[in-house]
Amino acid sequence: MHEHFLASEYPPCPPERAGFHIIPAPLERSVSYGGGAARGPAAILAASQQLEAWESGLAPGETGFYTAPPVDCAGPIADVLERIAQATTRALACGAVPVLLGGEHTVSLGALRALAAQARQRGEPLGVVQFDAHADLRQSYEGDPYSHACVMYRAAADLGLPLLQFAVRDFSREEAAARERLGVAHYDARFLARVGLPEQPLPEGFPHNIYITFDLDGLDSSLMPATGTPSPGGLNWREAQFILERCVAGRRVAGLDVVELAPIAGLHHADFTAAKLTHLLMGLAGAANTTEKQSAEAHA
User: Which UniProt keywords apply (predicted)?
Assistant: First the structure.
């Protein structure tokens, strides 16, 4: 039996009645510095048992949490991404918000493929909001186009998804050029520290439906040392929450992920922070989606 997210407060919900499907994806195949990302999903689920039922006045568990069995991450990466896409599609078929727990950042591509397919079918564009120390816009890294360093390039170039990046502070000349070529909007860590965030950070014309991908190294390394490449100069907790609140305002959150936790034995605060962030993201997504639904019904 696998552990269920926040089962200490909310009994596991049947998938067809859950507001959120938590999908563990313990992939670790292309990490290029510190290891341990395969243990991240299980650590988040274990730490979630120490959370309270409410987070920042929000209680997403009241809509039901269903934690799916961990995705089998053995074998060719094409097969792994297809399994992640299938788990995401099952969540969407239930009317739930898919919540992917990585594993290395490559897992996001599987979820995005499923969501992009749904967006095309419905004629509703999807945009990606990324929190990360790295741009992840390399066409290939160490000979691998499906490296964790390439995931946002695959999303923007291959899937054609608009992309907005926050807190990036480590990237290459190649990635800077890719930003220009692909029209990637960004608020890098240096800009946020010196200038701050505008009232409306999403660019004009950015899709109404968004996917939030949160690489934990987007947080400052003093807060989140348990990741493959902890980097100084990142976001603190309240900064991340503030930006997230502004990004979801007036939007619908179609899906989200939290990736790249590499647990350190005995360092409980990092695992707990990752679980708390996951809970916060679900709370903000649930509140935004409820507001969006009520607004749509009022204008129907």
Answer: Hydrolase, Manganese, Metal-binding
- Give the separation between CA 219 and CA 227, rounded to whole angstroms: 10
Decide if 23 contacts 100 (C-beta within 8 A).
yes
Question: What is the H or E stretch that residue 174 is in?
Answer: helix 173-182
Name the burial class of residue 123, with classes exposed (0-12), middle (13-18) and buried (19+) by CB atoms within 10 angstroms of its CB: exposed
Write the single-letter amino acid at 101.
L
Question: How far is Cα 128 from Cα 164, in angstroms, rounded to an integer?
Answer: 6
> Is residue 144 a known part of a binding site?
no
Q: Is residue 299 in a domain?
A: no
In a domain, 118, yes or no: yes
271 marked among binding-site residues: no
What is the CA 183 to chain-centroid distance, rounded?
Answer: 21
Q: What is the pLDDT of residue 34?
A: 81
79 annotated ligand binder: no
Asked whether residue 195 is domain-assigned, the answer is yes
Residue 209 lies in a domain: yes
Domain count, the chain: 1
Q: Would residue 143 be called left, alpha or beta, if left means φ above 0 and alpha means ψ between -120 and 50 degrees?
A: left
Known binding residue 217? Answer is: yes
Q: What is the pLDDT at residue 300?
A: 65
CATH number of the domain bearing residue 115: 3.40.800.10
Domain span at 197: 20-293
105 is in an annotated binding site: yes
Q: How far apart are the first and last CA of the chain?
A: 44
Chain mean position to CA 291 = 21
Q: Distance (Å, rounded) from C-alpha 146 to C-alpha 82?
A: 13
Q: Is 170 known to sit in a ligand binding site?
A: no
Return the SS3 of 63. Answer: helix
pTM of the model: 0.97
**What is the structure's pLDDT at 295?**
73
